[in-house]
Design goal:
Shape: globular
Largest sheet: 5 strands, antiparallel
Distance between the termini: 62 Å
Strand order of the largest sheet: 8-1-2-10-9
Number of strands: 10
CATH class of the largest domain: Alpha Beta
CATH architecture of the largest domain: 2-Layer Sandwich
């Protein structure tokens, strides 16, 4: 056998030669010498919401990566659609939470109608008209809103808003919108601040309706999972790259440098990452360091 043929045999069939001591040592030595070009690093994305409220995600990154030549698995259309819907719902929940935190939205606004309106798109059109009327009186009015189905089949909206609200003005404008659209019976507007106006609580309360609203008949191809006011955008404050051995160590270091403790942690197995926040289930900021293992519902 020629030298060229021998080299090809070793290259394409290393398992067949694994019993030979010289080959196994060569493979082991090559690995230890760092011949693998994929050197892992840890990337941490930090969201600082102020008042000691911090959220961060740590994941593994690689200096170089080779594109995969493998074709995607043959998945039935129904399973693929369900998986895409699950991922989209998770992204929407995360976005709603971060918009509420960044926007400092501390109060919950609920809009209902006496008439049964089962069409979510029609309710969205009422909401658009309602926002335009409010902006005539409050140009800087900020919101993040999510629809929810009622047991009778009607739709109503929950919206996170900032600070004190003129309830009488909001109710008058909502009744005006319903009258313009010919909806009989009127409706109601309620504003409820969470206990001590904790942003994490209202963010979790609002984001939980994402799956509820669109897990059944309300979900259509063009239905909106949520809507937010123009200019309200959640952007990370900084990216950190390091060589931590464990993802937990990376998050703990970042929180410690920011002077905050870790109130909750969730391992995101589907993407190989770890998420952490500096508040507990009651929305209180944690000032002492240390991991508190919380169920994934905390990140929802």
């Amino acid at each position: 056998m020629s030298a060229t043929a021998a080299s090809k045999t070793i290259e394409h069939a290393p398992l067949a030669l694994a019993t030979r001591d010289d080959v196994s040592k060569l493979v082991c030595r090559t690995f230890l010498d760092g011949d693998d070009k994929r050197q892992p690093q840890t990337g941490v994305t930090v969201y600082d919401y102020g008042d000691g409220l911090i959220e961060a995600v740590a994941c593994r990154r690689f200096e170089t990566s080779k594109p995969s030549n493998q074709s995607p698995p043959d998945i039935p259309d129904l399973l693929r659609q369900q998986d895409n819907e699950r991922r989209a719902t998770a992204r929407a929940r995360t976005t709603v939470r971060r918009l509420v935190m960044f926007g400092n939205l501390t109060h919950l606004l609920t809009l209902t109608t006496r008439a049964c309106i089962p069409d979510p798109e029609r309710f969205w059109s009422l909401w658009e008209r309602y926002v335009r009327l409010i902006r005539e009186h409050l140009p800087n009015w900020q919101y993040v809103t999510v629809p929810e189905p009622q047991t009778r089949g009607a739709v109503h909206l929950h919206a996170a808003v900032r600070g004190f609200q003129d309830v009488r003005l909001l109710r008058r404008l909502w009744l005006r919108v319903l009258h313009e659209q010919g909806i009989e019976g009127g409706g109601s507007v309620n504003v409820c601040p969470p206990r001590n106006a904790r942003r994490p609580k209202i963010a979790r309360y609002l984001s939980k309706y994402i799956g509820k609203a669109f897990g059944g008949t309300l979900r259509t191809d063009r239905a909106h999972r949520y809507r937010g006011s123009t200019g309200l955008k959640a952007t990370p404050t900084r990216h950190i790259i390091g060589a931590w051995r464990h993802l937990r160590d990376a998050l703990e270091t970042v929180f410690s440098e920011a002077g905050a403790g870790v109130g909750g942690m969730v391992e995101l197995d589907n993407v190989g990452a770890v998420w952490g926040c500096s508040w507990d289930r009651d929305g209180d900021t944690v000032v002492t360091t240390g991991w508190g293992l919380s169920p994934p519902a905390l990140a929802a």
